[in-house]
């Protein structure tokens, strides 16, 4: 796919969307770095649904340090990569996987408590929406038009999709 296949408004909207989601991920990662008391343990222990045993195991004393660090690293990697426009596709895929884990830990299914959310959801919540938006960015990358990839490589063709 070539960026010339996008109209100017399509390209601009995708670039803005990429940067906004990148900002959200980076901000969440930075907040966790500067809060020494932050841990995913409570989120994981309050999980519901069929994957609860997995998330409870992840919250165990032997795993939680790694899980917390991995969460921060992935958030910051995704954020920096999307904002900068480099490694955009691996970042989008990593962000998608992370958000799907968040979703599966607290699915918005009928009969389950909503858990730590900012609203009331039924099947679809913000993690699902942002996750699939990242999947769209994976399939419609824009870093060849605006980002470090363009500066470093001069590449005006997008990665194979």
From TrEMBL:
Keywords: Membrane, Transmembrane, Transmembrane helix
Sequence intervals crossing the membrane: 12-30, 64-84, 91-109, 129-148
Origin superkingdom: Bacteria
Protein name (Swiss-Prot/TrEMBL): DoxX family membrane protein
Naturally occurring in which organism (per UniProt): Fulvivirga sedimenti
Lineage, uppermost ranks: Bacteria, Pseudomonadati, Bacteroidota, Cytophagia, Cytophagales
């Amino acid at each position: 796919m070539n960026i010339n296949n996008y109209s100017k408004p399509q390209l601009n909207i995708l670039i803005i969307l990429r940067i906004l989601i990148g900002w959200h991920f980076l901000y969440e990662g930075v907040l966790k770095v500067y809060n020494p008391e932050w841990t995913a343990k409570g989120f994981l222990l309050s999980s519901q649904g069929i994957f609860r045993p997995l998330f409870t195991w992840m919250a165990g004393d032997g795993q939680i340090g790694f899980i917390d660090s991995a969460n921060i690293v992935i958030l910051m990697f995704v954020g920096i990569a999307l904002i900068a426009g480099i490694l955009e596709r691996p970042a989008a895929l990593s962000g998608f996987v992370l958000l799907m884990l968040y979703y599966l830990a607290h699915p918005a299914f009928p009969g389950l408590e909503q858990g730590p959310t900012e609203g009331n959801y039924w099947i679809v919540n913000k993690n699902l929406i942002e996750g699939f938006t990242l999947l769209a960015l994976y399939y419609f990358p824009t870093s060849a038009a605006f980002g470090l990839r363009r500066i470093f490589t001069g590449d005006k063709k997008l990665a194979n999709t």
